[in-house]
Amino acid sequence: MSTSRTVPTIELAAHAIEVTKSYGTGPAVVTALDRVSVAFGRGRFSAVMGPSGSGKSTLLHCLAGLEPVDRGEVGLDGVALAGLDERRLTRLRRERVGFVFQSFNLLPTLTVAENIELPLAIAGRRPDRGFLDRVVDALGLRDRLLHKPAELSGGEQQRVAAARALATRPAVVFADEPTGNLDSRSGGELLGFLRRSVDELGQTVVMVTHDPMAAAHSDDVVFLADGRVVDRMPEPTAAEVLDRMKAIGG
Amino acid sequence: MLRYSVRSLLAAKGRLLLTAIAIVLGVGAVAGTFVLTDTAGAAAEAAYAEADPRVDVVVRAAPDGEGEVFSDITGELFAEPMPASVVDKAARVDGVAAATAVISGDAQLLGRDGRVVGGGRAPLGRSLDASFAPHLRAGRLPGGPGEAVIDRRTARDQRFDVGDGVRVVVSGGEAQAVTVVGVLGSPEVSDAVVLVGYDPATAGRLLAPAAGRISYLEIHADAGVPAPLLRDRLTAALGPGYQAFTGTDLAAERARNATPTEGGDTQFFLVAGVVALVAGMILIRNTFTIVLASRTRELALLRCLGASRAQLRRSVLLQSSIVGAVASLAGVAAGVGLGAGFGALLRSTDEAVADVTGTIQVLPRTVAVALVVGIGTAVMSAWGPARRAGRVAPVPALRGEVVAAGRLGRGRTLAGAVLGVAGAGLVVAGTLASPVESGFLLAGTAAITLGVLALGPALAWSLARLLGAPIRRVAGVVGALASGNAARQPRRTAATVLPLVIGLTLISFLTTLAAGTKASAAGGLDRTLRADYRLKAAGAGMHQPLLSPRVPERLAALPELAAVAAFSGTAASVGGHDGGVTAVDPAQLPRVLDLQVTSGALADLTTGAIAVSREAATTLGLAVGSPVTVRTARGARVLTVRAVYDTATLDDFARQQLPLADFLVAPADHRALADGGVTMVLARRRDGVTPEVARAAIARAVADHPTVEIASAGELRRQATAAIDPALRLFYSLLGLAVVVGLAGVVNTLVLSIQERARELGLLRAVGMDRRQVRSMVAWEAVIVAAIGSVVGLGLGAFLGWAVSRDLDLPATVPAGQLLVVAVAACAVAVLAAALPARRAARVDVVRAVAAE
Predict the structure, then answer these.
(1) What is the pLDDT of residues B85-134, one digit of tens each?
(2) Which of A61, A64, A121 sits opposite B477 (nearest CB)?
(3) Is the distance from CB of A65 to CB of A89 less than 8 angstroms?
(4) What ipTM was predicted for this assembly?
(5) Nearest-CA residue of chain A relative to B759?
(6) Which fold has domain A42-67+83-248?
(7) Among B706, B730, B751, which residue terminates a domain?
(8) Is B851 on the interface with A (CB under 8 A)?
(9) What's the total number of domains in chain B?
């Protein structure tokens, strides 16, 4: 089920070993992650599924270094996150992680082009024009570059977010319910693009979702329930995922 | 609803506290004015009204048959001398127990440092008779030459005591050693006077204006004779040319004068209060707007639960009146401190006479006014936001669909632009017209003000973009985000920056005007003054102490000097108008002063001639050849106008430095009209003598005259240009306060914006922005907002200052360097002020921000 301690981390884009994370204190304590061990290989599109409160978003935040863990070990692109200070974590995110959130991915004051290049600009890195052009064209954003986010549809906004996530060629793109606010067509397009980024660019994508249709685009699915890994499913289909979710009680 | 109002008020207490400070300051200034005035008034009443007047009636000379009640013992210095024979005449009046001659004059006490005591306090030497005995705090009255009594304040300040040897300069001469035999503390001798009291015989010898002349008369009545009756009898007996007052009238006048009701100091307080309140109004309005915007969902929920519009509106107004009431009470407390503190300051500056040592007076009226002003301000400022709160549409707001309006009203922008351009056009047209059209200036200023208010959001938006451009280049994406954020809600930015704009407009206006005034003073002196040195006796204020006649004599003997002119001044009635008459040797005058003569010639200023300034000539209808009567207490002379000169190039500040009056006469005529000695000496260096050598020679020549002050032309120039500095400093500190309040508003808005943008900040942090970058982003935003305020405020102020300078005939110069310093300072303070919101922004919880749905 879960990967063992002896996994050679160098082949993994991200991993967690025996990670425990809880919120609150005393009787109000909520254990979000309970000794979770999980690994995501390079160049793969992985999905994390589970019912509400299963800890899937917390897992993603811990893997991305947004939240410290109580116990256990987290590695990102071969770097152990334990003991990194705030500045190093920020730099690590900036250089090796891309994010696509469910909503509110874009800064309203910046144009589409500026939003896409934002992580590069923050890092003070020169953008790789050729690569960015490929991404922009693949996402069909060419004629939207000078628009403000408010002038874009929801689907377009998420595509811009995806472009931004890819712009730095990160070790991992973490997507947190990226299709949660989209209609099925726009969602399908976005997932198709994420799939292509894995297949054509060799990108690693870890996606949290509760939508079996979305999970079906991935190479394998990790199921969480009550803060524990309860199952894995390679080469999932929507129907199989749906069945498994029903079994878990999601 | 009441509970809700109070709870939500408490929830925002930090923010409201910040804005309430403006009300506290404003109400504090207003209450402070009342406290100061009431306290000083009560103290003055206690000091003067209860005291039994030392004398029953005072008689003074009034050459024109009219005169004012002496308001202070310093009034004695302006007394026209009278013949000593009046004493006997008055003594014979029925009911007079004793008529005592008072002799007063220039006697300047030297302090322990060898310099004249007092600064701005007036020196007074006078005779003291036995009636002063009850007012002695220590020692006894002077009994002969070499003995003197000094006042209580001087004794305290200089640590002089009975038995100490002190030095006194009489009429600008050499210092004389006297022994302090007593210390006088009487309501008549206010803290504004440095007293040297002699026995009547010594005073007569040292201070008498001329042989056989006295300064004025003090009358003691027979028992049972009322003072008013005696006053009337004396007036009748002495005839025209004399005037009598009762001692009670004098005391009342002193009490009135010691109360600073009409002084500029208290008006300044009121202006400060109004400025703070205006800034406070805008701040409170902004705070309520923003607080309510961030609570739109909450308000919508209340509406869904059945709260009516009126209830929501009342709830906001209730909250604002609570803020106003709390702030007003704090303001009263601040006002008490301010009143007491300012009173102490007044006493320490030697300048004023307000006595606030008594019980601090906080009348119910003060508290009532403070509450009305404070609550009124708060409720008025919350009115607009309260109406908007009532209009929240329940369901869309609950869904979070209502976004704060960030659009620019096109009509508003257009109207603002038209008004602004038309106003500027009016001002320019009015200014360039000859003579300047003040009406155009006023109308134009009003139009510009309205225009800028209407244009506010559009200006804020475009300036944020414009000023953001260089910042983008310097600070990259951080700068781009900052400028985007500043331009994001132009209405909010405009409202936030308004108090800053007001403060900076006034600062810039004053600075421009001050620069013009200084240039005018310096230019006038440069054009007129040919002398290299001015000598006068130490001492400021209404009465200029005299120089010894030996000072010009010794200077005239110096080979280092090419010209020496001694000026003597006296007050006189010229052609029925009060004016200053100055006497000078016509041969020396053109060598030290270059007066522009419009008709006649100053060389004709021989005995029997008078030169008249153009203003006075116009007022009195005089021209070369006209006869005019000059009258003083000593007598009258009919003189013929021989020259008219123009002093228009000299402004008041330049004129104060020079011995110029509206009338110039020859020394012989002056001696016939007045007893006065030399008031000023102007001297010119001989060519080829270095300034150091000439100055050293002058200093040696007057070394034994300790009251003489030597000033070079350059020093006079500096004194003239520095004359407005104390007033400027006062205004700058007040306006600085307004700017600080304005910056507090900027911080307030930033804190709220950051709260609103928590998710954006979280996103930025998630995609790799570090805390330092977040902090600098917020700081840049503050800089952009402050820069918007600086550009608009300083630009507007400089423009209006330029126009008004032209209107006042001042050299119209825009002090760009100084204004730039102000702008940089405002931006720097903005960065400091932004530290708190910046830290908050950097601390945003990334996970909560990005995960929040």
Answers:
(1) 888 888 898 888 888 888 888 888 888 888 888 766 778 888 888 888 88
(2) A121
(3) yes
(4) 0.83
(5) A104
(6) Rossmann fold (3.40.50)
(7) B706
(8) yes
(9) 2
